[in-house]
Amino acid sequence: MTPAELEQIVEAKRDEIAASELHMPPELILECLEPSYRDFRAAIADGRKDSSPRTIALVQRDAECDFVDMLESVQESSTACIVPTDRDLYKGSLEDLDAADLRSTIPLVRRDIIVDSYQIIESRQFGADAIILLASILTADEIKVLSHSAQEWGIDVIVEVSTADELARAIEAEADIICISADADQPDELIAGIPEGTLIIAEAKDGVDAVITKMS
Question: Domain-by-domain residue ranges, the chain?
Answer without folding.
Answer: 3-215
